[in-house]
Design a protein that fits this description.
The structure is a single chain. The protein is α+β, with helices and mostly antiparallel strands. The chain has a single domain, classed as Alpha-Beta Plaits (2-Layer Sandwich). Helix content is 39%, strand content 31%. It has a 5-stranded antiparallel beta sheet with strand order 2-3-1-4-5. The protein starts with a helix and ends with a strand.
């Protein structure tokens, strides 16, 4: 095999690795424990308020556990003051805020 062919294949492999690693990069996510979540209307209200916060990409509400998972866009972070205000504006109380890591497939990891 020629040296030039080997270099080309190595370059292609390196490019593929770089694209794959950036595509699989995990996003920052936050787990909010919220008091007062009891119905789908509650979930809708808090999704609407948190979804309006700058940098929020996805909001998932689990009514049974009283938790809300907020996934941020890349290079964005959720600050406690913004989370507190959005939760209060929706009519609920923020009990706690914990940063977690979202896996590339959308499954959450602690």
């Amino acid at each position: 095999m020629k040296i030039r062919t080997i270099r080309q294949r190595m370059a292609i492999a390196l490019i593929l690795i770089l694209f794959t690693s950036s595509a699989l990069a995990a996003q920052a996510a936050w787990l909010l424990r919220v008091d007062g979540l009891s119905c789908p209307f509650c979930a809708y209200g808090i999704e609407k308020k948190l979804g309006a916060v700058k940098g929020v990409q996805r909001v998932e509400v689990d009514i049974a556990s009283g938790t809300v998972t907020v996934t941020m866009a890349e290079d964005a972070a959720l600050d406690a003051a913004s989370a507190q205000k959005a939760v209060q504006d929706a009519g609920f109380s923020l009990r706690s805020l914990e940063q977690i890591r979202a896996a590339p497939q959308g499954k959450l990891e602690k």
